[in-house]
Write a structure and sequence with these properties.
The complex is a heterodimer of chains A (about 250) and B (about 475). Chain A is α/β, with parallel strands linked by helices. Chain A is built from eight helices and twelve strands. Chain B is built from 17 helices and 15 strands. Chain B is globular and about 80 Å long. The chains are: A alpha/beta (about 250), B alpha/beta (about 475). Chains A and B meet through strand 8 of A and helix 1 and helix 3 of B.
């Protein structure tokens, strides 16, 4: 089965629509969303409604730190993120907020694990910045492949049976075999706010039979997404950064 | 987990095991058959049980990732792989014949024979590099030849794939490979420079032409590290009849600094195919190694240590194309030749490692007996070579980047296409047919070249033609 995995949609309707379209065209049969549905972007209602529909049809979704912050003021965030979250809170209805509140922290699916930040302490929202961070996550789970996001920059790590690590910045549209003899941590770039210098929306396709992973990019209408942010009075930097992919 | 026994008659994933044909340190090789596959097959099985070298497992993982992605005649075709969860194996095409290792007792071989052998290996390497793979274990036992003479590279356990995780890099702090053939930058942990393979091929070229290994057989790290600062004896010091052009090629491959080697395997193959076009430098004249003062400066001055790859494999190859310009120096319109030069200059300006081959076709008559001498008695072939060089002079190219060729053929388009194919040309620049010079030799072939070449073709027109292009040119422009 071909999985399409999305992370960090962040209320960016244009980006998420583009990813769904490309993923469906490439034959994706099942969707996984790794959290941070809201925050930063100007269309949280549409994104959450779409996620709820997909989940009702069998998609997997886990909770991100921004999703949690909508329902709790204890999450600490930087100033712009905080402004965006407070704005978002006012936009979502009870059903949408409940959907986010009830999302699981992680989901195990066969020998795969889906989590927003990393697997060792998901509730602490640590970033995977290095092979050492990746090792901590991989050691904490027996899963063959862990999928996470949170850092908005794609990476692929592996750990051998003797705990030797490899790390790689994956190239777009190149399928790679995730060998059975080792464990893998697939860190996804963001759908709604890429920060790796490429403004196009990032997602991943994974073939559960052949264990081939492909990092994909979907170009989308960045200007419209940025305008929506400005029109709604959100911090301008959140709009500006979309066109730079920073 | 239970593992199936690997023994004659056993069946793994539909493959019936035959006999064991090789038992090496890292893996065993078995003949296998499979219903529905009408080819001679080999199953490679890693030594992966407890107590074996962990490198055997990791290098097999690399092969399992790389082999299925490779295509073309210069690698064994891969039919399937099985992973470590069950029984690790890779089923590959069985290449008939033996590896180049069998030739070791015959060394040194005649220069001409080695030149052709190594040109074929360089062609195979160029194909591998274009597939984003650096072999990292080029040596006689990794090289075989098909019945048609094409070289086949085998054993990708130490290879680096530019698109895949480098499992070997992570696993071992010491460089894995075959000591006598290992490039100096490998000792510094560099694994992403395709020119490391050119160094190894240079070692092979040196060994096969002199009978001596340029850096000895030392297996210790200390012995291996000497090549970071000590250059080998020039082959001419070992064999007085050693051709200077061949020494130029060998020593360029064996440069300590990768930047001073050939930029691509295709460019090395080009020189080996055209020895008369090799630009001789001080390398060709050298009879002694560098003075100790120079060697010590390298040894104790970290600045001159190899710096390794600065960009990825595909970028490096793309920066170093072989560009061919097809010229009609005898009958071509001067304005067209000028336009060709302007276009060539623009293309080369962005590509400091590109090399330019200027080609002219001397058209032979199908029936009449051709004379080499023209009416005035001068040699047409040599005249054309001189004219090509004259055309190229304003480009101010370093001689090592320029070559000139006169092809003799009845069909100029076919001759150009063959030249491009054989020499792995990346880009052909050719003048368009001109209305008023309909008989222009090369102009009349541009459409065929543009339509049939397997590389990029730029068709050039002089400025004034763009305004009044006739019908015949309009359809050609589409090529």
């Amino acid at each position: 089965m071909l999985l399409a995995v999305f992370s960090d949609i962040h209320g960016n309707r244009q980006a998420f629509e583009a990813c769904l379209k490309v993923a469906r065209a490439k034959g994706a049969e099942r969707f996984v969303m790794l959290g941070d549905f809201v925050g930063y972007g100007a269309d949280p209602e549409w994104v959450v409604d779409t996620a709820m529909e997909l989940v009702a049809q069998g998609a997997v979704a886990v909770r991100g730190n921004h999703d949690q912050a909508v329902n709790s003021s204890s999450e600490t965030m930087n100033n712009e993120a905080q402004i965006a979250i407070e704005w978002t809170r006012g936009r979502l209805d009870i059903a949408q907020r409940r959907f986010l509140a009830e999302l699981p922290m992680l989901v195990e699916d066969g020998d795969r694990l889906f989590v927003h930040s990393e697997a060792s302490h998901p509730q602490r929202w640590h970033y995977i910045r290095s092979t050492a961070d990746a090792a901590k996550s991989l050691i904490s789970t027996p899963a063959h492949v862990t999928f996470c996001g949170h850092i908005h920059r794609p990476a692929l790590y592996s750990m051998s049976v003797t705990a030797k690590m490899t790390g790689l910045v994956p190239k777009t549209d190149i399928s790679m075999p995730l060998l059975r003899g080792r464990q893998w941590l697939a860190v996804l770039g963001a759908v709604g706010q890429p920060r790796d210098g490429d403004p196009s929306a990032a997602f991943v396709l994974f073939d559960t039979t052949s264990c081939q992973i492909t990092y994909c990019r979907a170009p989308y209408d960045v200007a419209s997404a940025a305008n929506r942010i400005r029109e709604n009075g959100l911090p301008h930097w959140l709009a500006d950064r979309l066109s730079e992919g920073r | 987990m239970p593992k199936p026994m690997v023994k004659p008659g056993a069946v793994i994933d539909g493959y019936t095991i035959g006999e064991c044909v090789h038992a090496g340190g890292m893996a065993t090789l078995w003949t296998v058959t499979h219903a529905g596959i009408d080819a001679r097959l080999l199953m490679k099985i890693p030594r992966a049980s407890e107590g074996e070298d962990p490198a055997a497992i990791v290098s097999f993982e690399m092969e399992m990732m790389i082999l299925p992605r490779l295509t073309g005649p210069h690698v064994p075709h891969c039919y399937g792989t099985g992973d470590f969860a069950h029984q690790a194996y890779a089923v590959i095409e069985r290449i008939s014949g033996t590896t180049l290792y069998k030739r070791l007792p015959d060394l040194p071989l005649p220069y001409g024979e080695v030149r052709l052998l190594v040109a074929k290996i360089a062609t195979a390497l160029a194909d591998l590099h274009r597939q984003n793979v650096i072999h990292h274990d080029i040596k006689p036992s990794s090289i075989m030849f098909r019945d048609n003479g094409e070289a086949v590279l085998i054993d990708f356990g130490l290879s680096h794939h530019n698109h895949l995780p480098d499992l070997m890099q992570a696993e071992f702090r010491l460089p894995y490979g075959t000591a006598p053939y290992m490039a100096p930058e490998r000792l510094l942990g560099v694994r992403d420079d395709p020119r490391s393979d050119l160094f190894s091929l240079g070692v092979l070229l040196y060994f096969f032409t002199t009978g001596e290994r340029p850096f000895g057989e030392g297996e210790t790290l200390r012995a291996m590290r000497r090549r970071l600062w000590r250059d080998p004896y020039p082959p001419r010091a070992l064999r007085s009849d050693y051709p200077p052009w061949l020494q130029e090629v060998v020593l360029r491959c064996l440069e300590i600094e990768p930047d001073w080697r050939y930029p691509t395997a295709a460019q090395l193959a080009f020189d080996l195919t055209h020895p008369d076009q090799v630009k001789l430098t001080a390398r060709a004249e050298r009879m002694k190694r560098d003075p100790l003062s120079v060697a010590w400066r390298r040894r104790f001055n970290p600045d001159v240590k190899p710096s390794g790859a600065r960009s990825d494999l595909a970028t490096q190859i793309a920066m170093s194309p072989i560009v061919t310009v097809a010229l009609d120096t005898a009958e071509g319109a001067p304005e067209l030749n000028e336009s060709l030069r302007v276009t060539t200059e623009r293309i080369l300006a962005t590509l400091p490692s590109a090399r330019l081959a200027c080609v002219n076709v001397l058209k032979l008559n199908r029936i009449a007996v051709d004379k080499t001498l023209d009416e005035q008695g001068s040699n047409k072939h040599i005249d054309r070579l001189v004219a090509l060089r004259h055309w190229a002079t304003p480009l101010k190219l370093d001689e090592s980047r320029l070559s000139v060729h006169v092809l003799e053929a009845v069909d100029p388009a076919a001759a150009l296409l063959e030249f491009a194919e054989v020499n792995q040309v990346d880009h052909v620049i050719i003048g368009a047919r001109q209305g008023s010079f309909r008989r222009t030799l090369l102009g009349s072939v541009s459409a065929k070249v543009a339509a049939e070449a397997t590389c990029t073709v730029t068709v050039v027109r002089p400025p004034r033609m763009a305004a009044d292009a006739g019908e015949a040119d309009a359809d050609e422009a589409a090529g």
